[in-house]
Amino acid sequence: MEQDELAAWLRLALTPGVGNDAARRLLAAFGLPQAIFEQRPAAWRQLLTPAQAEALGELPPQLPEQLQATLEWLDGADDGLQRRLVTLGDATYPASLLAMADPPLMLYLSGQLRLLEAAGWPCRALAMVGSRNPTPQGAQNARQFARAFAGAGLAVVSGLALGVDGAAHEGALEGGAAGRLATIAVIGTGIDRVYPRQHRELAHRIARQGLIVSEYPLGTPPLAGNFPKRNRLIAGLAQGTLVVEAALQSGSLITARLASEQGKEVFAIPGSIHSAQSRGCHALIRQGAKLVETAQDVLEELRWPGAVATAVGDAGVAAAPANNDPDGLLQALGADPVSLDALLARTGLDTATLQARLLELELDGQVGRLPGGLFQRLALG
Q: In the list 112, 147, 157, 282, which could disulfide-bond 127, CB 3.0-4.6 Å?
């Protein structure tokens, strides 16, 4: 878009007190933002509160700096990445977001936009969310399910947070096919920032195989209130939401609720009755979410023709081959977290032997160590 048009959109978005709802009323009445700012204050007051109309008449102090930063950001893409600012009036604005009660005025996009240009926003996309502190089994489930979905041609939508989000992005990148959008990260900061810092390298890989999306102006820091708000976009860009692991107060339940309010399917993976990280999923299932044991369960429920889970992606809990468990330790572990004392009683092994075997299985990726001195058997890949 032209610089004057961009400046008008930024001014509308940055005006304090004028949120998305009031801005949409102005756009509906007067057209593009440039036309809004050509109106007299009396016309604004027909649609806004007096305080909003007064604020609209003032230039936001950060506008010149934000305009310059946005122009530089748009011009800064390298050969492998594309950047774009999509406004509410743009024909390429995601139609699924327009159906929400609070669609953002602008979306900052970075990544493989050519894939969007070829097919539009992916009609086959699944949101995957969950705990920032998952159990080892939960993190592995997220990665395996996401790998399966990406292998079946779905774009996995998540929030780039630690825990389940990161595992889901990783799995999707592993399973994504060439020429398809593997994953979409919806972030709660400006698109020129990566939060958390631990995911800087992951964010770069997502941009190479997928897309990063933000509704926030450049430079926006990781403010606590922005993350629950961005969850509506995670739900809105997908046709369904899978909750992998979540405590009862988890933000993932917000995403699930928003998906349900948008008429989308909600899925949940059950877990141990002894794990606090499973209680949110169990609550969702009691409220009507679909119980999921394999990736194929989701694909069949959504009835996507041609979307078939790959061999690696029929992500469910697999039993260990018998020759990998000569002393019966894996069988004794069961599926729930268990203490060392309980394993001593179940196996009859002496303490030194048991600890050595647990370390061996942990290094082999078959057992996870949990807080509180507990151990948990992991699904085999």
A: 157
Here the contacts of 29-34 (C-beta below 8 Å, separation 24 or greater) are: 32/5, 32/8, 32/89, 33/5, 33/8, 33/9, 34/4, 34/5, 34/8
Provide the 10 A C-beta neighbour count for residue 336.
Answer: 16
Task: Please tell me the pTM assigned to this model.
Answer: 0.86
Residue 311 lies in a domain: no
Per the structure, the complete domain to which residue 368 belongs is given by: 322-377
CATH number for the domain harbouring residue 326: 1.10.10.10
> Is residue 317 situated within a structural domain?
no
- 205, two tokens: 């890989």
With H, G, I as helix, E, B as strand and everything else as coil, classify residue 100.
coil
Report d(CA 19, CA 322) in Å as an integer: 60
CA 128, chain centre distance (Å): 6
Mean per-residue pLDDT pooled into runs of 10, the chain (381 residues): 95 95 95 96 95 96 97 85 91 87 94 80 88 91 96 95 97 92 97 96 96 97 94 96 94 94 95 89 97 94 65 44 68 83 88 89 86 79 41
208 and 327 both lie in a single domain = no
Both tokens assigned to 373? 């001195």
In a domain, 313, yes or no: no
Phi-psi region of 184 (alpha: psi -120 to 50; beta: other; left: phi over 0): beta
Last residue within a domain, chosen from 39, 62, 85: 62
CATH number, domain containing residue 118: 3.40.50.450
Report helix, strand and coil shares of the chain as percent, to nearest 5. 45, 15, 40
Q: Cα–Cα distances in Å, from 6 out to 68, 322, 355, 358, 364?
A: 10, 64, 63, 59, 54
Q: List the alpha helices (DSSP H) in 152-278.
A: 164-175, 200-209, 226-236, 252-261
